[in-house]
From TrEMBL:
This is UDP-N-acetyl glucosamine 2-epimerase. One of its GO terms (molecular function) is isomerase activity. Belongs to the UDP-N-acetylglucosamine 2-epimerase family. It comes from the Bacteria. Residues 29-357 form the UDP-N-acetylglucosamine 2-epimerase domain. SUPFAM superfamilies: UDP-Glycosyltransferase/glycogen phosphorylase.
């Protein structure tokens, strides 16, 4: 079997790592196509080197642009690649513009498409990621769902027959890297200047268009982080930096210590050492949950509803409600002593993905 993975943005590289590792031990051929949606060294290259992913076989180099330009550039660049490679499956990941473009380019050429992380829904149609998920699921031939909840969504949309519950590949990579970090094999802890790792601190990220693109909302969010009672390591995504700069907003204020985005193992180390996480990222909410750290999510909803159980993840859409008192209580809460894999999986999801793909080759 020949499988062609299409990736382009940071969260896809994290998911690619366990998939590439699962293929490495088989006779199957795995071709990696990087669209170039993310091109900064610390959003892309460090994930290949840090997670031991083989270099991409093909780089499309599409870069940034409006949604139409970015999606269209991937679409037109994919045709010759698919015609040359003729894979048995095109495997697309998650919910970015690269995901949708990879899926559409394959279906137009009658090449079977599998969607990893199928069935996630925020039901928020203002999010570009929500359209990318829904359209990709309906285009794909095989839907690889991470959770029972995702399977329910797909069945509700009439896609149950194409759906397989495989578990979440992010559990595979998160637990492996956690174990490396705890055994001293990971990257050293790298926190922004001014944060003392021996004292409680929070890890924060902000990059969703709905939080960064409205100047009043972004200023209110950064202001709320600045007022927190513990230092905040704000690992700033390029979109956040660009929007803050164009809006004349200073990120280094009050408790906020801005820093660069971290490689995966440094991020896991930062979260493990922290009192908790404040974020609008999907992946980081789940990593906080898996690593037993309380999370506050700066959004109206989450696709990872399982993290809301027992108050480990709180949705706080209104920056004025980012409650300092709650943080003091959460920061002193003992981490759970049990393995947090369930309900996301057992750390063997990538292996199951390879098995399901192989069993369904046409
Ligand atoms: C994208 C995904 C989002 C995912 C996120 C992870 C879409 C619609 N969104 O959002 O689902 O959670 O990646 O990071 O696909 N930029 C750089 N360097 C880079 C990449 C981007 O400077 O390497 C800047 C550019 O100014 C660009 C902006 O960031 O315009 C946004 O990048 P884009 O790829 O459009 O979306 P993300 O916000 O990264």
């Amino acid at each position: 079997m020949k499988v062609l993975s299409v990736v382009g943005a940071r969260p896809q590289l994290v998911k690619l790592a366990p998939i590439a590792a699962a293929f490495a031990g088989t006779a199957h051929q795995h071709v990696i196509v990087h669209t170039g949606q993310h091109y900064d060294h610390n959003l892309s290259d460090v994930f290949f080197s840090g997670l031991g992913i083989p270099d991409p076989d093909v780089h499309l180099g599409v870069g940034s642009g409006s949604h139409g330009v970015q999606t269209g550039a991937v679409l037109s660049a994919m045709d010759p690649v698919l015609e040359r490679e003729k894979p048995d499956w095109v495997l697309v990941y998650g919910d970015t513009n690269s995901t949708l473009a990879g899926a559409v380019s394959a279906v137009k050429l009658h090449i079977p498409v599998a969607h990893l992380e199928a069935g996630l829904r925020s039901f928020n149609r203002a999010m570009p990621e929500e359209h990318n998920r829904v359209l990709t699921d309906h285009a794909a031939d095989l839907l690889l769902a991470p959770t029972e909840e995702a399977v329910r969504h797909l069945r509700g949309e009439g896609l149950g027959e194409r759906t397989h519950l495989v578990g979440d590949v992010m559990v595979d990579v998160c637990f492996k890297v956690r174990d490396d970090v705890l055994a001293g094999r990971g990257q050293a802890l790298e926190l922004p200047e001014g944060i003392d790792p021996s004292q409680p601190y929070l890890v924060a990220t902000l990059h969703r268009a709905e939080n960064t693109d409205d100047p009043a909302r972004l200023a209110a969010l950064v202001g709320a982080l600045a007022d927190l009672p513990v230092p905040v390591a704000l690992l700033a995504h390029p979109r956040l930096l660009a929007r803050a700069q164009s809006q004349g907003l200073k990120l280094a204020q009050g408790a906020v210590h801005p820093g660069q985005p971290l490689p995966y193992s440094a991020m896991v180390a930062a979260v493990l050492g922290s009192a908790g996480v404040v974020t609008d990222s999907g992946g980081l909410q789940k990593e906080a949950y898996l690593l037993g750290k309380p999370c506050t999510t700066l959004r109206t909803e989450t696709e990872w509803v399982e993290t809301l159980a027992d108050g480990w993840n709180h949705l706080v859409p209104n920056p004025a409600e980012l409650d300092a008192t709650a943080w003091r209580e959460l920061a002193t809460r003992p981490a759970p002593s049990f393995e947090r894999g369930e309900p996301y999986g057992d750390g063997r999801a990538a292996q199951r993905v390879v098995e399901v793909l192989a069993a369904n080759v046409r």
